[in-house]
């Protein structure tokens, strides 16, 4: 293979197969994110319908994220992911056909969104637990960086492809495109072979509720996880609405409308790609400390967008924010995988998805309520300032600053050895 291909893809055939399927699947998801509002509008849903369908897709995380983590630790994670892909393939196929034939309506799209979100809730904890079994310990960080690259690439290419698909085949055809990506992902997973732990006989397994409680105990026993779960919640509720809800509202008066906002969004995507490429080679000794510092930079986005600066300086700062966001998420996930035992990993990761993805509707509601009282300009500054305070609070946690690398991460990391006696 060419030397430009990252070493983790050359050396890790299992991960190469997983990466290939997920690259296309994430791209399909990003296309659907753009297309979904137009699909709802095309069936007469209006702005209220768009909100209802969008929220319906996230709500299953609140109910299913923790049980999904338990199942991913008890069962074959790969099979769970295949089942999730199969369900999401069916949902997007049905949605596409209904839209193309003129039989779709808002109630049907809401039901399909709920089913899609439920399947997605089972996929995410499973893939976090599966990745370490597809690479050697030393390749875990670059593997997560490449997973981040799929999201960064999808964020840039997805809207462009989605716009072309809407013009050529409409929302229905775009949903069918996403269905095909899930089919490809399922096939790559079926071809994937990963080592499995010895199966525990059913009569010897702890009760489901006992496993659920053990997952909670695993989280509580690690202060650095608790700190980052709080940080993830704050970022989702306080910072993300500034980007996805209030930013577009302000774009008309401050950034020249949709064109200026597209430039800012693209700049963030470029920064994200740069951060992913950086993490392919740079392995900080204290990954979680660097992740927490990067969260400070990521949390500045609300203040940057609401600062009153023009499109060009905001776009330049968003490049830096993109780097910070990628470093924050990739090193956080790597730290989980390096330090949490495999048998508990999906359960612990499920708390991350619950407090991040599951909190997205809450953030949107908070942004809307503050905007109604204070106006968009003041609301974005208030939310941004609160998010920044939360990020600084995480860096102040000793367990976050002192956590060293684990599971082979320290073997390749640069910098001084961690001080003796630092807890892992």
UniProtKB/TrEMBL annotation:
Protein name (Swiss-Prot/TrEMBL): MFS transporter
Membrane topology label: Multi-pass membrane protein
Main localization of the protein described in the UniProt heading: membrane
The keyword Calcium belongs to this UniProt entry's keyword annotation: no
Compartments where found: Cell membrane
Keywords: Cell membrane, Membrane, Transmembrane, Transmembrane helix, Transport
Species name: Amnibacterium soli
Ranges where the Major facilitator superfamily (MFS) profile domain occurs: 14-402
Transmembrane segments: 23-44, 50-72, 93-116, 152-169, 224-246, 258-279, 286-306, 312-332, 353-374, 380-400
InterPro entries in the cross-refs: Bacilysin_exporter_BacE_put, MFS_dom, MFS_trans_sf, TM_effector
UniProt keyword Nucleotide-binding, yes or no: no
SUPFAM superfamilies linked: MFS general substrate transporter
Lineage: Bacteria, Bacillati, Actinomycetota, Actinomycetes, Micrococcales
């Amino acid at each position: 293979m060419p030397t430009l291909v990252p070493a983790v893809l050359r050396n890790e055939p299992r991960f190469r197969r997983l990466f290939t399927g997920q690259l296309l699947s994430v791209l399909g998801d990003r296309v659907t994110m753009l297309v979904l509002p137009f699909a709802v509008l095309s069936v007469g849903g209006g702005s209220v319908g768009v909100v209802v369908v969008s929220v319906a897709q996230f709500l299953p995380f609140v109910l299913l994220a923790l049980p999904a983590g338990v199942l991913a630790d008890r069962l074959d994670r790969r099979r769970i992911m295949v089942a999730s892909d199969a369900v999401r393939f069916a949902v997007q196929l049905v949605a596409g056909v209904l839209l193309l034939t003129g039989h779709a309506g808002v109630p049907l799209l809401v039901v399909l969104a709920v089913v899609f979100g439920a399947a997605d809730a089972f996929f995410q904890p499973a893939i976090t637990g599966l990745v370490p079994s597809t690479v050697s310990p030393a390749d875990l960080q670059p593997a997560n960086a490449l997973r981040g690259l799929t999201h960064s690439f999808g964020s840039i290419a997805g809207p462009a492809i989605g716009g072309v698909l809407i013009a050529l085949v409409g929302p229905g055809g775009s949903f069918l495109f996403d269905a095909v990506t899930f089919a490809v992902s399922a096939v790559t997973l079926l071809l994937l072979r990963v080592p499995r732990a010895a199966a525990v006989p059913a009569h010897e397994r702890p009760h489901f509720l006992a496993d659920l409680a053990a997952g909670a105990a695993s989280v509580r026993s690690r202060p650095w996880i608790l700190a980052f779960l709080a940080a993830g919640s704050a970022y989702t509720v306080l910072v993300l609405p500034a980007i996805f809800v209030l930013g577009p509202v302000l774009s008309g008066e401050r950034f020249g409308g949709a064109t200026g906002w597209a430039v800012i969004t693209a700049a963030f995507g470029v920064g994200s790609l740069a951060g992913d490429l950086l993490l392919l080679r740079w392995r900080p000794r204290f990954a979680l400390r660097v992740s927490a510092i990067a969260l400070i930079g990521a949390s500045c986005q609300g203040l940057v967008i609401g600062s009153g600066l023009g499109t060009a300086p905001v776009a330049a700062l968003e490049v830096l924010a993109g780097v910070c966001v990628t470093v924050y998420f990739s090193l956080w996930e790597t730290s989980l995988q390096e330090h949490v035992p495999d048998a508990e990993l999906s359960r612990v990761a499920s708390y991350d998805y619950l407090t991040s993805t599951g909190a997205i509707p809450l953030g949107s509601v908070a942004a809307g309520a503050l905007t109604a009282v204070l106006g968009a300009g003041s609301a974005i500054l208030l939310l941004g300032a609160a998010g920044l305070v939360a990020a600084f609070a995480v860096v102040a946690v000793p367990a976050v600053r002192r956590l060293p690398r684990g599971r082979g991460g320290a073997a390749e990391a640069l910098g001084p050895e961690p001080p003796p006696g630092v807890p892992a």
